[in-house]
Design a protein that fits this description.
The complex is a heterodimer. Chain A is of the alpha+beta class. Chain A is built from seven helices and 28 strands. At the A-B interface, helix 2 and strand 13 of A face helix 1, helix 3 and helix 4 of B.
């Protein structure tokens, strides 16, 4: 899932005033230090001095009551506003999640993947687990889309460090979008906002960087082709017309290992332009033996880009549970605090493709169907071009690790979890 | 034992103390007012409002005499804001400059329309490395001198704008015009026209 709308937490105004206590003893106001000093200094003013002690106290009490009333009104107004927010949008998504949770016992994942271990990511407060990649030595690489950070975790899930610094410049990232293992156990991080790929050695030291600004896009995903020594970056976000509107162009961009641009492929589909799906095109990708497999979330067509640079459609999911989007998402009318649930509810109207993995002679495609369980997984045979198995599961396929295992998210959601559990598994086909 | 009473503490705070506090308050106000006044009166100071609502000011006078690498010649050069009657300085962060590719034609038109004694157009690359600068420039091939900022002196100054391209037209007496990114084609052309209209003669 690509970068989502940032969420805003509303805080009540005037809390500081509410916390100022006022007590009464024998009919006299006994106020805390701040009020006392105010009263005492006020006594020194001549106009105030002319008033009797009773009137002075009454005046101060009046002022305090005014403050309490103003704060009270503000709080009431705020809570009233919060009640007025549309909650139907969040309800549909919550109900779908609840239904998936209730049907968890019918999860069929184990019919095709045998669980090996369950790993708990610990040591950092992950807010949104948007990317998980696994190195050959089983080190876990994570991107948290909300905290905008790339991190590494040991094979058991214990936090070991942050990959790169926060900032704009070589070795720094403004908004990491993907993290992968490259040559010599090094790690590359793509920066969505800084339009840069940073490469760090195995010990975390910054090695080199390259920028991809000149191809006019923002990288959402990245894969490294170890066979041919090249990077593939995916993204289109700021390919704009003269009027500043997104026009879309080629989505896939190839660079050599020194960051020299080679070529762009894969034009943004015309039919997706009418629904303005530019912000919802985070692809499902996998690269195996120098061949790249890619699918867009709104189109069940698996494309294959071979070593020669030829790109062609491999499979089309005509007889599957897949449903393409038919309604445009109107983002302008949504309050920012409701954006996440609104988008999730919009996604209930179709079945976004979320993951793809080449496993032996098979291609595994996962998409969100909320058909009793959250996801559907189709297993395609590459030699025959047919689906050999289709299952329902609540587990999101996160990555095919370089260590040979397949990693699934054991939580139902990838955002807002107190603990993230990763299921390490072995394919049974 | 003394019980708590508001009247007791009134004796603890004397009139002298209150007057001192008020005096200090006014002094602080006076100092900050004079600081902002001097910043406003500095002809090389520009106030920038960011897209995120933040505001900052940069003092472009620190550019005078700073040494940067000319990426065309590979030589270190000392920047002089007085070598031409007007100097258009364009700050570019190669990684984070979505509009640079579109706006470049406006700067290049200006650079080729005037003699360097009348208008000198230069670009300064910031937030980047020598390797990144090289590949960026190879692709862009800008028709103007491009400098790479590896200067510690420049990096230490609150000079580099957050959003680029940041353009500033500097005359011999100070900043004449300053503008951040222009995403739309008509805004880009308008900026070029503004520069042409604002150019000063050396005697002015």
């Amino acid at each position: 899932m690509g970068p989502q709308f940032p969420l805003i937490t509303t805080t009540a105004q005037g809390e500081g005033f509410v916390n100022a206590p006022v007590t009464f003893q024998n009919g006299h106001a006994v106020s805390p230090a701040a009020t006392t000093i105010f009263l005492n200094q006020a006594r020194k003013l001549s106009a105030f001095n002319h008033l009797s002690r009773r009137w002075q106290e009454l005046l101060v009490m009046f002022l305090i009551i005014q403050v309490v009333l103003v704060v009270g009104c503000n709080s009431a107004k705020l809570s009233g506003l919060q009640k007025d927010r549309p909650i139907s949008q969040s309800n549909a998504y919550s109900l779908a999640l609840q239904q998936a949770k209730d049907n968890a016992s019918s999860d069929e994942l184990e019919s095709i993947f045998k669980g090996k271990a369950r790993l708990s990511l610990s040591g950092q407060n992950i807010k949104s687990l948007s990317i998980l990649r696994v190195k050959q030595d089983s080190t876990l690489l994570v991107v948290d889309n909300e905290r905008r950070v790339a991190e590494s975790y040991g094979p058991s899930g214990t936090y070991t460090g942050t990959v790169g610094e926060v900032g704009n410049g070589p070795g720094k990232q403004l908004w990491p979008s993907d993290v992968i293992e490259v040559a010599n156990q090094s790690v590359a991080v793509s920066d969505f906002q800084g339009h840069r790929v940073n490469i760090f050695a195995n010990d975390g030291q910054f090695r080199s960087s390259f920028i991809y600004t000149t191809q006019n896009f923002s990288a959402q995903r990245m894969v490294y082709d170890a066979v041919n020594g090249c990077f593939f970056l995916f993204g289109n976000r700021w390919q704009t017309s003269d009027n500043g509107e997104i026009s879309g162009a080629d989505l896939l961009h190839k660079y050599d290992q020194n960051g020299q641009f080679i070529a762009s492929y894969f034009p943004f589909p015309d039919k997706a332009k009418s629904l303005d799906l530019y912000s919802f095109n985070s692809p499902a990708m996998d690269l195996s033996d120098g061949v790249l497999y890619i699918a867009l979330p709104f189109d069940y067509t698996i494309y294959r880009l071979d070593k020669s640079g030829e790109m062609k459609a491999l499979f089309q999911g005509a007889n599957t549970a897949f449903k393409e989007p038919t309604v445009k998402l109107e983002t302008e009318k949504i309050p920012r605090e409701d954006a996440y649930n609104y988008v999730q509810t919009w996604r209930l109207g179709w079945t976004p493709i979320l993951a793809l993995a080449r496993i032996n002679d098979h291609l595994v495609i996962e998409y969100q169907t909320f058909d009793k369980l959250r996801y559907t997984i189709d297993v395609w045979s590459l030699p025959s071009g047919n689906i050999v198995k289709s299952i329902k599961t609540n587990h999101l396929l996160l990555t095919r690790g370089a260590d040979g295992y397949i990693y699934f998210l054991d939580n139902l959601e990838n955002r807002g979890q107190s603990q993230y559990e990763i299921l390490q598994s072995i394919p049974q086909f | 034992m003394r019980s708590f009473s508001p009247y007791l503490s009134s004796k603890a705070v004397s009139t002298k103390t209150i007057l001192s506090a008020v005096g200090l308050f006014f002094l602080a106000g006076l100092v900050s007012a004079s600081y902002f006044r001097s910043a406003r009166n500095n002809p090389y100071c520009v106030r920038i409002s960011g897209a995120d609502g933040s505001s900052s000011s940069i003092d472009l006078s620190v550019l005078e005499g700073v040494t940067l690498i000319n990426l065309g010649s590979g030589q270190r050069e000392q920047i002089s804001l007085r070598s031409s009657c007007n100097t258009l300085v364009v700050f570019i962060s190669p990684g984070d400059c979505p509009n640079c590719l579109k706006e470049r034609s406006v700067w290049e038109n200006l650079a080729t329309s005037y003699d360097v004694s009348r208008l000198r157009v230069i670009a300064i690359l910031v937030h980047t490395s020598a390797e990144e600068s090289k590949s960026f420039l190879e692709f862009l091939n800008l028709k103007m001198p491009v400098y790479y900022n590896d200067s510690d002196h420049l990096n230490q100054q609150p000079l580099i704008p957050k959003e680029t391209p940041f353009k500033t037209l500097i005359g011999r007496e100070g900043v004449l015009l300053a503008q951040g990114p222009n995403p739309k084609a008509n805004e880009q052309a308008e900026f070029g026209n503004k520069v042409r209209a604002t150019l000063r003669n050396c005697g002015e």
